[in-house]
Amino acid sequence: MPCLNISTNVKLDGVDTSSILSEATSTVAKLIGKPEAYVMIVLKGSVPMSFGGTEQPAAYGELVSIGGLNPDVNKKLSAAIAAILETKLQVPPSRFFLKFYDTKGSNFGWNGSTF
Fold this sequence. Notes:
Blueprint: E1 3-8, H1 17-32, E2 40-44, E3 59-65, H2 71-89, E4 96-102, E5 109-110, E6 113-114
Parallel strand pairs: 1-2, 3-4
Antiparallel strand pairs: 1-3, 5-6
Helix pairs in contact: 1-2
GO cellular component, one term: extracellular space
GO molecular function: phenylpyruvate tautomerase activity
InterPro entries: Macrophage_inhib_fac (IPR001398), Tautomerase/MIF_sf (IPR014347)
């Protein structure tokens, strides 16, 4: 159910994306309280992106979930995902935005139907 979509201007050639995906999956599942089996992470690199007028490493993310989000959880998720991006891709936390969407099950398609 939770889907984290991250776009970055960092090139992912030679980067261990598997470790980013697995760490982000476990982090999202733990903090939202959903099984890892339902967490999707999408990571897109080499996306033309400017932040603050420069093209230094930056990232933008959107996290959609059916429940599990609230101001406290969102703050923890923002810090945790920013830490992953800083460690793995050298994107400073100050150059990363993360937008949260808490949606209804009827707005989320899966397995040929909705939740």
